[in-house]
Amino acid sequence: MKSIKDTETKQEPQEEVRVYFNLHKKVYSVQKKVNGQWKLSHHTEQINLKNVTFKVYEKGRERVIKEQKKYVHAFVIGTITDEERETTRQVTYNPYKYQSFVTKDDETSIYKADYARLTLTPFPCIEI
């Protein structure tokens, strides 16, 4: 996995993380729990996760809609893995259209997956 050296911490397999797309840096921001709170660990262009949960904080979503500004409120949570799996579907999220992450092909809500690959190539994409 290619990491961007904004922070010195590297990705460790078997570690639970919370990931979001950073609109300012155009990379994925990876957070780890430190003393019970999520803290920025590093930035990356690709990350593979297993035992995935797709989480949208409703209060944050409501704030985005009300203020018409972008706030971090949607995350992909899972355990980092070096495992590469075949993916067949894409997942997306748009706070103005959906209350949760959805599959791109049929817009079905999705809350969990066994595996997800978050990549920037050729565009920011979540594959399951």
Blueprint (SSEs and pairs):
Layout: E1 3-4, E2 16-22, E3 27-34, E4 37-44, E5 46-56, H1 58-67, E6 74-80, E7 90-92, E8 102-103, E9 112-119, E10 125-127
Antiparallel strand pairs: 1-4, 2-3, 2-6, 3-4, 5-6, 5-9, 7-8, 7-10, 9-10
Structure description:
Helix content is 8%, strand content 46%. It is mainly beta and 128 residues long. It has one domain. A hairpin with a 2-residue loop joins β3 and β4. It is globular and about 40 Å long.
SSE string: EEEEEHEEEEE
Measured by DSSP, the beta-strand proportion falls in over 45%
Largest sheet: 10 strands, antiparallel
Point out poorly predicted stretches. 1-9
By DSSP, the count of extended strands is 10
Fraction of residues in helices?
under 10%
Number of helices: 1
* Tally of distinct domains: 1
Using brief descriptors, characterize the structure shown:
128 residues, mainly beta, disordered N terminus
TL;DR?
The protein contains 1 helix and 10 strands.
